[in-house]
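A sample follows:
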Amino acid sequence: MYITTRNNTYYYRRRIPLAIVSLCDSKYIHRPLSSDRVLAKQLAIRYNNIFNMIDIGLKLGHDVSNLVAELNFRSGEKIDIYEQYMKHKDVSANRMAKIKRHLSVLKVLLPNDLSKLNMSLLDSIKGKLTKLPKMNIQKYRVKSITELLKLHIPTEDKQSIETVNGYIKLLNALLKFAYEREAVSRQFSVTLVKRLGSSRDERQALNIEEIQKLMYDSGNQKLIPLYKILYYSGMRLSEVYKCKLIVVDGIKCFDLTDVASKLKTKSSYRLIPVHDSLDDVELLLEQARAARDGYATRKTSELFKTKGKTLYSIRHSFATQLASEGIETTIISELLGHTHKDMTMGRYVKGFPTKLLNESINKIDAV
């Protein structure tokens, strides 16, 4: 009842109780919420909860100044939005380490006072991200971000589009978090960097000899369990850390149906039967998760030293092998977690029978 709209933006408007007017800077609270109806409702509920707690506190004779400060945007209090954001994230230690590394870069590029942000400044930050080098190259490690931006970085040394977009996705998440906590006054959305050419040209499938090289000749035993899980399941790297193992219709499966997990798309929520070659899959999965994702990605690229041959190529190999065995496109799409036009798949809807998926996935050559 306290939400109003103006120029496609939702606002929260409410009279301040007389008992606390002397503690506030106005007789009304009139704050912009969001142009998104769902987010606006969530923020309005937050305000309602604060008012309810103030009301209860007054009736009990408690000091409500801290609650009033919430309504005044914590005036005078310095908030470290980066620290709050990291505390807010519930992710694995490896993922948190990556977030911290990326935030350390963004913190240099963003202004100290986030309230001064505008789209022109954010576009400039996006441009700077595209000029930074790969951080695994030794000669760049010893230099600060400010120093790196003054250098002329060769194209072959620059960060990949995927890495730049990873920074931008984190930036958007941080800005949304800051807006919800009133550290910025409006919502921002920085567009991702577009790829040149098709994604098919960027990543190539590995042939069977190259898969064998990963499994036996890589010289890095720590990554072999991860390679096996990826090769025999077709999962995305991030899904390896989120899946569970269950038995469905007597068949052991990687379970990615938990809606509490954040996956790429709705179609990503699926079951993948465990390939017959993965005898001790519980142990393999535990060992695979011990490998740091950034380390695995870098080591795989170093092994092939060929453009388009990356860790993600294993997923392409999975799809290519199934297609060469004559498996229907719709089945391949379900195993990969891709959306396909022939079937409408919801998060809770089971698609093809587990037995059929199991027969299909065992068409993958054992190496």
